[in-house]
Design a protein that fits this description.
Blueprint: E1 10-11, E2 14-15, E3 31-32, E4 41-50, H1 53-66, E5 72-76, H2 83-93, E6 108-111, E7 118-122, H3 129-134, H4 137-141, E8 146-150, E9 163-170, E10 179-188
Parallel strand pairs: 5-8, 5-9, 7-8
Antiparallel strand pairs: 1-2, 3-4, 4-10, 6-7, 9-10
Helix pairs in contact: 1-2
Length: 191
């Protein structure tokens, strides 16, 4: 069993690259500067390997513990890749004990029992961005909690200028439970 639970030091054999005690520490020093006039966006990326659902949960839990109010995570991955397990980990890291499942039909579920509000969106069934306006997405995206948005690629035009993209991918060549989790920090240039 290759399951390697995530800890402050990182996965066994894969040292934690960040420093400090915040979510941004997950971004490595590799910088990708998109071809945008004036350098409007700065992106930093780190890849983490998960060998079992417990690893994926533990990474989410770590991110939930380190998150600060106003954190926005976008979550992308195929069906069955572990988005819900990751999200349950984030909720646990925030101190939320109630069951957490994807709000596929309600679009958003708000949990308030943790150390800050947790706004969990699943926008898979959104037909138009106007539906997001009807449910008051701005209060969540720009609120004092942690906002996690599944299928965020469907609403890119309304995402805030700064967020962390979490992409979870399977690679069956490396095992049934193996996942490559890519964290990409997108920040608006403050200049």
């Amino acid at each position: 069993n290759q399951c390697q639970h995530f800890s402050k030091e990182g996965f066994k054999g894969q040292p934690y690259q960040g420093g400090g005690n915040d979510l941004h520490a997950y971004a490595s020093q590799k910088s990708e500067h998109p071809d945008v006039a004036g350098g409007l966006t700065i992106m930093k990326t780190e890849q983490i390997e998960s060998f079992c659902p417990e690893d994926t949960f533990a990474l989410g839990e770590k991110i939930g513990r380190l998150a600060e109010p106003g954190t926005v995570l976008t979550l992308v991955g195929d069906l069955g890749v572990g988005k819900t397990v990751f999200t349950q980990g984030v909720a646990a890291g925030l101190g939320i004990r109630e069951p957490v499942n994807s709000p596929t039909f309600t679009i958003v579920q708000i949990y308030e029992e943790g150390r800050m509000p947790f706004y969990h969106f699943d926008v898979y069934r959104i037909g138009d961005v106007e539906e997001m306006e009807e449910i008051g997405y701005e209060d969540c995206f720009y609120g004092n909690g942690l906002c996690l948005i599944e299928w965020a690629n469907l609403i890119e035009e309304i995402l805030p200028p700064s967020y962390t993209r979490v992409k979870i991918e399977k690679d069956l060549k490396k095992g049934f439970d193996y996942r490559k989790i890519t964290l990409t920090r997108k920040e608006a240039n403050q200049e």
